[in-house]
């Protein structure tokens, strides 16, 4: 059964999807490659003569069927490329993983998925925006995909879970390895209500090269990728580039021009990414506005406001106000004012004018 040999090779050569597809092509099947002697692996498979004998020894000592049975006992599934449960969107990318190790339950293929990525060291504004947008998108039926990293990733997962939605965490290590350690509880919550996924075998440590490799899966599982705060050389921009290469849409939340974490999203917007001011932009881009109704709390009135939102809202009128003016009058830090304005826009209480000024919406409720 070829599935067994794909599993075996993926275990021996983790994160080497391109090599496995090439190996299958050269040998006709991975079963043939599995049975091939060292010399043939060098001549036909292109393996390094200096390392091939160590690989053959590891292959001889490894029992794929026993390993598969052991994973089942740990609640870990291996979903092969040809399995009906393998995500259809991922099959379409250039170098899909031959199989996925999964804890939990993958969403139905008919569910629209959004990748949410960004800085590991975001501002309070970025954290708040990522969590709120993920929450509202998940409440509207969208699957939220991210990487369980610190910062924006974790905020997106938390937002989706708080809405009772489905979220998928794609790891750069084994699905039984907690990284970062502080996300142990979050990881368990995702596995219970969504899915924790990796192409790396259980037990694989979180090595630096794993993360750019796993980013293609984050974007590949998703119809669109949303970037919330990213420096110019952020890994989130690698995910956005991969999304474009895969023919997927890219969206970005704009930020203040003085913040280094705004440079990534702002550059993406200049290059054609969709500017996101609220969850309605996301749903429209995904083409699901007519398929799912937003929860009543998003569009109904009067919505509940936080202290910061109330402080900013009370200082707005139908005359345009700049962010600097709102900072001065509310005595709040600029990042908190920007976060409050973002949420007031989501709640359809204010709108932004060209030039960056804000006014009350004509139909907004009074407070």
The counted number of beta strands is: 11
CATH topology call of the largest domain: Rossmann fold
Major sheet size, sense and barrel closure? 9 strands, mixed
Helix fraction by DSSP (H/I, runs of at least 4): 40-55%
* Count of domains: 3
The tally of helices reads 18
N-to-C SSE string, H for helix and E for strand: HHHHHHEHEEHEHEHEHEHEHEHHHHHEE
Mean pLDDT: 91
Task: Please give a quick description of this structure.
One of its GO terms (biological process) is DNA-mediated transformation. This protein has 367 residues and is an alpha/beta fold.
Notable characteristics:
DNA protecting protein DprA, disordered C terminus, nine-stranded mixed sheet, DprA, 11 strands, two-stranded antiparallel sheet, DprA_WH, 18 helices, DrpA_SLOG, Rossmann fold, alpha/beta
SSE inventory with pairings:
Blueprint: H1 2-12, H2 17-27, H3 30-35, H4 38-43, H5 52-61, H6 64-73, E1 77-80, H7 88-91, E2 99-104, E3 113-118, H8 124-139, E4 143-146, H9 152-162, E5 167-170, H10 184-193, E6 195-198, H11 210-220, E7 224-228, H12 235-245, E8 249-252, H13 263-270, E9 274-275, H14 279-286, H15 296-299, H16 307-313, H17 323-330, H18 334-346, E10 350-352, E11 358-360
Parallel strand pairs: 3-4, 3-7, 4-5, 5-6, 7-8, 8-9
Antiparallel strand pairs: 1-2, 2-6, 10-11
Helix pairs in contact: 8-9, 8-18, 9-10, 11-12, 16-18
